[in-house]
Design goal:
Blueprint lengths: L1 E5 L20 E6 L12 E5 L7 E3 L20 E8 L8 E2 L1 H8 L8 E5 L2 H5 L11 E2 L1 H9 L4 E4 L12 H8 L4 E3 L11 E8 L7 E11 L3
Length: 224
């Protein structure tokens, strides 16, 4: 039997967004309702004003490297397959996730080419807090180096990628330069019962975009 766990942090009207003028909010607008359907067939049509970085999304090289590959060019084989969960749910506010942490929790199960998921439960436990973006656990450059050196094909996480306030974005630069897609705002990893799962992470195919909303599903073999 296969158990499915939805790891997607969805989009909804009024959802919190990063507090910056350049960071738009998600808006869902009804362009037709059952009452306004001119044919009387009670259809509903929606116009989604989507900024990918509000919910679960995948980023690729164009995000930091002008002229590089966009989200529609992520190699398909990276989007589906074996994933290992680094359970670091003991991490508190502003605690770094390091390469040492990943080595400690992943080495017994890791295989080159695996997808890497960092679990801190920060998003699940703290989404909606006014200081959400100010005090999260975050990745260090050594965590990116561990992923690159050990052949990770994708890097997902439920905390922040960079240390709050670090405008240099060293983790983004390292991972994306190495061709490792970043899967941000993953959630619900506390529902997983196994460290190794099968992962499906499918971003919207949007030509010329640096990122896209992504539906993320983990599958566990309950017979094993």
């Amino acid at each position: 039997m296969t158990r499915f766990v939805d790891l997607t942090h969805g989009f909804y009207d009024g959802m919190p967004s990063y507090p910056a003028d350049w960071f738009p909010q998600f808006v869902s607008e009804r362009t037709m309702t059952p009452e306004t359907d001119p044919y009387g067939t009670k259809r509903t049509f929606s116009y989604l004003h989507v900024f990918p970085h509000n919910g679960t999304h995948m980023e690729y090289r164009l995000h930091f490297f002008p002229g590089a590959e966009g989200i529609d060019e992520v190699p398909l084989h990276t989007l589906i397959g074996r994933a290992c969960v680094a359970d670091l749910s003991e991490k508190g506010e502003l605690e770094p996730v390091t390469g040492e942490d990943l080595e400690r929790v992943l080495r017994p199960v890791w295989q080159e080419g695996d997808r890497l998921l960092v679990r801190t439960d920060y998003l699940y436990n703290n989404w909606g807090r006014p200081d959400y973006w100010d005090v999260p656990p975050y990745l260090t450059p050594s965590a990116a180096e561990w992923a690159i050196d050990n052949g990770a094909s994708l890097f997902g996480l439920d905390c922040l990628t960079e240390r709050p306030g670090d405008a240099e974005s060293p983790v983004h630069h390292a991972l994306l330069a190495a061709g490792i897609p970043l899967l941000e705002y993953v959630t619900n990893m506390h529902e997983l019962t196994k460290q190794v799962v099968q992962l499906v992470a499918l971003p919207m195919k949007a030509a010329g975009a640096e990122a896209a909303p992504t539906r993320v599903i983990a599958m566990e073999d309950t017979d094993g």
